[in-house]
Amino acid sequence: MKIQDLFKIENAHSKGFEQHKRGETPFVTNGFHSNGIVGFIEPLKGERVFKENAICVSAFCEATVQHPPFLPRGNGGSGLIVLTPKTQINEDGLYYYAAQINRQSWRFSFGRMVIQERIARLPIEPLGKISLRLSVKDILPKDKKKQDVKVSNLKLLPLAELCSIERKYAPYINQLNLSAQKTPYVTTTETDNGISVWCNEKPNFPKGTLTISLDGQCGNAFYQFDDFLAGEKTAVLKLKNASDPDLLFYIGTIIEKMSWRYNYGIKLSMARLQGFQIPVPVDSEGKIDRDSIHKMVYNTYGSEVFEKYAVSTKHASITHIE
What we know:
322 residues; Adenine-n6-DNA-methyltransferase TaqI, Chain A, domain 2; single chain; globular
């Protein structure tokens, strides 16, 4: 059986993400990060917003399952292809077929990208012959009861006033002592909390700080739970007047939201990062509303893990810094 037997195959049509106003519709792009969702926008006139469950496939054969409504990236020569079922396929089935597509990504490359004709002929095994041992709903995070958050006032605060912003030089990965796994080495990688490798080197930054990628996927922000080593392509932020993991996590989220402005051609430099203005909830007295920030942080998936480990990073310091 082939993809064309089960799915209607369409090219996405939309403007670039940066050409939209903020809204409530997910904008889906290439890659797996955040399931391909780069942000939430207000669709422009004439753009195709999909209103049914579907699979989005990038030019490099990265398949993600999307729930309606969503707007897939369609501008340029490598826009998404959207697969909508010809007959009813449940959620488990969509994930099953998306996994089959991802396992065949080796067939495609920069010189042989995914196009309608190629994806149409991609072979797949029909779900009817397979017994699924586990439902997708058993794997996905469970919905958590969210706290009401009412933010009446936002104040733009210079990032440089909220945090110290620093970077240091460190050995390259091929120069590290790997005889023991004591210290995480944070780089510009987008996974595993920014950690590329664990090594037997002295850390040069303390836990309880925020790392920001200045290269690669510029603006990736990670809260660090261990003393760590980082080099010149990673900025490290530490709150100046407080030890508050929630606030630092919130700042990291805002930085990631602003990082779409930067890429390989326009990198996020230290000077540009120091010029960021962070919208922060404030109370009636103009002070940072930490209660609202706490509620926003703990309304997200995985917050219970963050809460468990973040406690140990308060007032953190390390005694040996290179």
